[in-house]
Amino acid sequence: MSKFLFIISKGLESSGSATRALQFASLAAEKGEHVEVFLIDDAVHWAQVGMAEGIRSTTGEVMKDFLDQLTGRNCPLHACKA
To answer: Which listed CATH number (1.10.287.110, 2.40.50.100, 3.90.1150.10, 3.40.1260.10) goes with 3-79?
Structure first.
């Protein structure tokens, strides 16, 4: 099994990029890989309840779905408190 670490720093201004990173993390977790996600800088907003609601990538994938999939697979999501 491989280990994947995703460090996301994109916030509201680049929500599509943040969504895509979470999609890749979710795909790796779905394949049984160990996945951890760190939210830093502007991405810490995604750790707040409700912030991911309605956020989509340019191709329509929904951020909240990926967050739900990751938490449902017990993948650690870390948020910088700075």
So the answer is: 3.40.1260.10
pLDDT tens-place values along the chain, 82 residues long: 799 999 999 999 999 999 999 999 999 999 999 999 999 999 999 999 999 999 998 899 999 999 999 999 999 999 987 6
Helices (H), 2-53: 15-30
Do 58 and 49 meet the contact criterion of CB atoms below 8 Å apart? no
- What is the amino acid identity at position 76? P
**Coil vs helix vs strand at 42:** helix
- Secondary structure of residue 70 in the 3-state scheme: helix
Closest CA to 79 of 56, 57, 53, 49: 49
